[in-house]
Amino acid sequence: MSRQAVATARRTVVKVGSSSLTSRGQLDPHRLDAIVDVLAARVAAAQQVVLVSSGAIAAGIGPLGLRTRPRDLATQQAAASVGQLLLAERYAASFARHGLTVGQVLLTADDLHRRGHYRNADRTLERLLALGVIPIVNENDTVATHEIRFGDNDRLAALVSHLVHADALVLLTDVDGLYTGKPGRPGAEFIAEVLSMAELADVDVSRSGSHVGSGGMTTKIDAAAIATSEGIPVVLSSAARIAEALQGASGTLFHAGGDRSASRLFWLRHATTPRGSLVLDAGAVAAVVERRMSLLPAGVTGVRGDFYSGEPVDLVGPDGVAVARGLVGYDAADLPPLLGHKTGELPAEFRRELVHRDDLVLL
Ligand code: GLU
Prior knowledge:
Layout: H1 2-7, E1 11-16, E2 22-23, E3 26-27, H2 29-44, E4 48-53, H3 56-61, H4 73-96, E5 102-107, H5 115-130, E6 134-139, H6 146-150, H7 154-163, E7 168-173, E8 178-179, E9 190-191, E10 193-194, H8 216-229, E11 234-238, H9 242-246, E12 252-254, H10 260-271, E13 276-280, H11 282-289, E14 300-305, E15 312-316, E16 322-327, E17 360-362
Parallel strand pairs: 1-4, 1-7, 4-6, 5-6, 7-11, 10-12, 13-15
Antiparallel strand pairs: 2-3, 8-9, 11-12, 13-14, 15-16, 16-17
Helix pairs in contact: 2-4, 7-8, 8-10
Glutamic acid is lined by residues 18, 54-57, 80, 138-139, 141, 147-148, 152-153, 213-214.
């Protein structure tokens, strides 16, 4: 049923990683054309496509005279700045062969957390699609570095699939799906279907991925958890099999929904990067860890990092050791005046949990 849902999806977000667009580290126009041909055929069949593509850094390597992918962040960003222009041009020319127009959308994960930005991005994407344009999304690498460091756009693609209410998310990489260990190693078995993220509890995802892009399998599972928790089925497949992947006929299928809280907690435990931390007093540590209670502002003595409501943060004890991770209910900027106060003393709009116990996992 779900594989069929991918084949017939009205709107699909397709994510292509750097490793699928490059040969020997540099952008390969033939590989890009091959991907575009399949996407154009889907659009010709009246199925909408939003493409989330990496490859900006890779495309900048040649023009900057670099030999390999830069390691330091500033040069990566410079390469992305040069390369994004070329990447977008390549896509424009390639889709033009099919009479199709593309639009460039550069986003940050933060844009998708802030309500105003979220609405603006949503409106732009909807209008592009209504106009028959294929939106090509990448992280805005000049101002945001999350996906450069941790994920080659995997998470961004999942957030975009929420944003546009996609019917399916297809993640393309250089391995043909998820394995129980490093592909090719003895004992590593292909996982065809994932009904619930809880099934992956024992899979060593840290070593089962590709070595090229920056994400590996962990961020792909992270992305799958985000999308499936919102009811969007996910296919993880190789770019070489893009045509089959879009038919739901290759790769690992992550079934949508079902076990929303389990997949969210899996994601929290294994795959999120905390955006900050809350320092708890000893009483709050005991309440959260031993009595499994929600965290209230009264038990918090400090806030580190800049985060928005809904983002993952670590809960650390007085000794600085992280004891739990949770989705925070407040923006960091709102917290300082609330800390240490009993809930009853706070203004009505702040009388709620800082981290709800349903949004918490112990580490
Ligand atoms: N947005 C970056 C790019 O397009 C991230 C990709 C990566 O980490 O390789 O190049």
